[in-house]
Amino acid sequence: MYSRKKVLEEIPEEMTAVWSCTSEGCNGWMRDNFAFETVPTCGLCHKPMESGMKMLPLLVNTNRDQKTLRKGVSIG
Ligand SMILES: [Zn+2]
């Protein structure tokens, strides 16, 4: 079994915009990043979802992307 604890310690969490399922008893949610212009429906129970906030590990793009961003500052 891989250590989940280690991952939690290494990845900082921050309040993240998410869509949460409005159905009671359903834990369905998705990051706002993946949402569409219209209100998404829950993938579990197909009820409409509402926007909210949730403590989530920071979404870290690949290291290569971060380097690209830093290099990208120099345009000219
Ligand atoms: Zn649901």
Q: Give me the Rg, rounded.
A: 17 Å
Distance between the termini: 49 Å
Number of strands: 3
Report the uncertain regions. Answer: 65-69
Q: Report the helical percentage.
A: 10-25%
Class per helix and strand makeup = alpha+beta
In brief:
This protein is an alpha+beta fold and 76 residues long. It has one domain (4-71).
Structure description:
With 76 residues, the protein is of the alpha+beta class. The chain has one domain. It has two helices and three strands; from the N terminus they run αβββα. The protein has a three-stranded antiparallel β-sheet with strand order 2-1-3, with no helix packed on it. The longest helix is centred in the C-terminal third of the chain and has 9 residues. The protein starts with a helix and ends in a 5-residue tail after the last helix. 5% of the residues are buried. The protein binds zinc ion (ZN). Zinc ion binds next to loops.
